[in-house]
Amino acid sequence: MKQIILISFILFLFSCENEKSAVSNDKKDSTETTKPVSVDSFYIDESEVNSNEYKEFKEWATEEITKTSLVILGTIQDAGSPQIGCKKECCKGLFQKPDVTRQVVSLGLVDAENNKTYLFDASPDMGKQMKKLTRLEQNSDKELVDGIFLTHAHIGHYTGLMFLGKEAMDAKNTPLYVMPKMKEFLLSNGPWNQLITRKNVVLYELENEKPVQLSDKITVIPILVPHRDEFSETVGYRITGPNKSALYIPDIDKWEKWDKDIIVEIKKVDYAFLDATFYSGKELNNRDINEIPHPFIIESMEKFKDLPAEEKNKITFIHFNHTNPVINYSSEETKVVHDNGFKIAHMDVAFEL
Ligand SMILES: [Zn+2]
Ligand SMILES: [Zn+2]
Ligand SMILES: [Zn+2]
User: Fold this and answer.
1) Cα separation, 88 vs 183, whole angstroms
2) H-helix or E-strand spanning residue 333
3) Which residues of the chain have pLDDT under 70?
4) Which ligand places an atom closest to the C-alpha of 104?
5) Domain 66-352 has CATH 3.60.21.10
6) Ligand with minimal distance to 157 CA
7) What strands, in cross-sheet order, belong to the sheet with 9-13?
8) Interval between CA 231 and ligand 3 midpoint (Å)
């Protein structure tokens, strides 16, 4: 046990054998308008649990992960929740009382055999996320991860790198895995190029679909996806561990715009964390959903509706816009997603690899 914590977390296990979840007590403080989530109202599919009793109570931050796993460190779209300037119900109250479970999208990888950790995406919330991730590592007081993989140059996915620089942590040689255009972008723009010249980070150039071997049992494969690529290309990642593998695609255009078939890609893995920025056109004043360059949850559910239950069960929706009703665990839309056999990403849930 390494860490004494200030906030106590209640951890309970889903019946899904490889998942663990922690839900903060703080949610009881959420506002009425966002439908506060207390532990009691957390939506659990009754078919997934043997009883409604929480099976295990632990203080989250003292928990170490003893098996190689992915951990969800954030679930929200780039601009966060509450989102700047938002006057709508979705963010009402959150400016005064933030919900600690609303962090910008990021996945952590814990290599339990080699005592290493890696981040996927460097979000603006990276400071808290890296603290959480490194605390999960066994027998270690490290504050820095052993590598960071970037998906693309949109604000929610790389600007956390600023905390590695001189004004903040002043990291030494943190490996940063990037695609060629992303590398060019960092090298040719401040303040990012200063991280490189000062050796806060060391760049490793990725190649589309070429595996990076992190250990004899862990590989990471970048996969190009179509997205609004002004500054860099965009990749998702396939992450393979000792026993299982995962697909992480936080941002992508409509599934049909991809030269790969998402259904085939889901088949190759055990878990799929997929772009779910918007639930439906309702959030966008009923604009034509074809105009919005993300697969809406309702479109994805339609696309995946004929998949067998075990394939659907692999899919965890992530990267939620502040307006997305599934952020609220007790919303009708959350229930619809669960009833259709899919999952919604929650912070602090771990998936064993
Ligand atoms: Zn994004
Ligand atoms: Zn909002
Ligand atoms: Zn993006």
Assistant:
1) 37
2) helix 332-339
3) 1-63
4) 1
5) no
6) 1
7) 9-13, 19-24, 350-352, 69-74, 106-111, 116-120, 148-149, 174-178, 201-205
8) 10
